[in-house]
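step 4 of 6: structure.
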Amino acid sequence: MPKNCNFIEKLREVGLRPTKQRIKMCEVLYNREKTFHFTINDLVKMISEKMNEKISLATVYNTVHAFEKKGYLKEISIDSHKSYFDTNTSAHHHFFDEDTHELIDCDESDIDKINIRKNITGKKINSVEVLVRVASDNQTQK
Amino acid sequence: MPKNCNFIEKLREVGLRPTKQRIKMCEVLYNREKTFHFTINDLVKMISEKMNEKISLATVYNTVHAFEKKGYLKEISIDSHKSYFDTNTSAHHHFFDEDTHELIDCDESDIDKINIRKNITGKKINSVEVLVRVASDNQTQK
DNA sequence: TCAATAGTTTAGAATTATTATAATGTAGAT
DNA sequence: ATCTACATTATAATAATTCTAAACTATTGA
């Protein structure tokens, strides 16, 4: 979702009603300089802090999934225990810091274009994602 | 874990006691021609079918994680809802069929070596994994 | 060979993440 | 202003995984 703050319009454009909760969530997610990564839990905390009213956990789930479906968010799979979401919806790859559990975006120059030679009959490629797991140089990792 | 069936020895080598359950699990996982992918649920079913005795779900979890830690299994992250494991522990990439939820191994010739240009200070690269999501050519995908 | 002990298995409870439910509330159209 | 369809909410339900504590078993070494 673009920087420009007319979230009401943006929501309407994709057929989502601009409710108070959705607008608030847009502000939390998109009123910032850089894109970022979060879990549902992170987001609930951020919203609680920014808002004086409560927001239901179910609403956060619903809204995150609605935004994902509309292309405003992208889910990133790191491990089975946590869903990370990314406000950067362009095709890009990630580093995952196994010490801090931090996700870091790669930009185009970090990783050469991936060339897929295999072809699966009747199937088209939806996405190609690279995950680079990193960890502290001086410790054993799982 | 190599094809060779002396699982008792193999388990001992890495400091896992060769219990009845672990040996049975080795047989189910490694007494086969090809490596394969499974979820914990799949595995419980497979073991139940092969064994006449019951095995506790907790044991399956424990054992899978013990095997993973010892390098006999690798976890593959596809989405947040399911943990897939792979008996092929060598470095390789995957296709994921979003229609059938099937994981398919890539071999070396399918994807060129990934060249990582970015360097994160004080961190070393533990792994580089590519996931190629594919789906039927004639249907919209999320 | 036979305890001692340290690691393992087990059923079931607990926890965590997520989704479903059904009642209430609200945005947008008339 | 009213109606209707969609949203939100608290709570319950579900699902995946981990924890617990008691019973069991492989190994050690007397």
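step 5 of 6: annotate
 - Residues 24 and 47 of chain B are 8 Å apart (CA to CA).
 - The longest helix of chain B spans residues 57-69.
step 6 of 6: archive
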